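call fold(seq) -> tokens
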Amino acid sequence: MTDIVKQDIIEKKIFLIRGLNVMLDKVLAELYGVPTKRLIEQVKRNIKRFPEDFMFQLTKDEFKILRSHFATSSWGGRCYLPYVFTEQGVAMLSTVLNSERAILVNIGIMRVFVNIRKLVSTNKGILNKLNQLEYKVHSHDKKIKTIFEVIHRPPDAKLLSPRKPFSNKKAIRDVISSCEKYIYWIDKYFSKAGLDWLSESLNTNKVKNIRILMASEKVDEKFMSLYKDLKKELISNGVKLELRGITDNKLNADIHDRWIISKNLCYNMPSTDTVARGQYSEVKRTTNFPPFNNWWKKSKDV
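ret:
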């Protein structure tokens, strides 16, 4: 019974919802070897032991997103929205289920929760990743990812650190130099730094069209002067540089992320200001291309 639940199994069952690390009632019931209905009945009989920071019920939207993560799983005929349990709620479950298996399962789960706290407390980069993950969850991303999926994210995501200002800028320049045919750069807070990186890293033999989409209020006289200088310089190399400002209030509110898009590739980017200031941020290749052409049409030339 000592290896009743393995750590790698539990790692895949912990999710970040509402800023809390939680486990689903159905998953816990399976680990404890009891029907989900019985687990919830025991909880409701002892409901005073489970305040909202120990257990809460998912909303319809949260459940819909969570179900997409378990696309191949059978959810059965549930007649209520699932409950999720925080670390404290899981610990309390062993007292209401009161079985040897429940105690052993909880010991394994507690160890994983402790490992998560240790990892996060000693690595600001992981904390930043979790903050970004929580934002995506609240923005109705396609999936809620497990905590350890974020921690063990593959190397297509590059963390930019305040301790490495030159490496951070090189990471942006590498993205620019990898582009072909065109560059569409979406960044509401696009700044002079972005123009500098384009000037330094653009391969004018491969890229012939650049479009920058930014918030119109961020365009001032100094920026426009630099933009016009770069535009003239690029024209002499056969490259067309265009700039549009986002004037539609709804569109401005809807655009949260930043991207560099080129032929067959797309990167989620930090804002140019964020990189220039040396804050923690991330560059990540993605397959989720934003509707750039639609946004471009709704914006105005600057």
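The first helix runs from residue 7 to 11.
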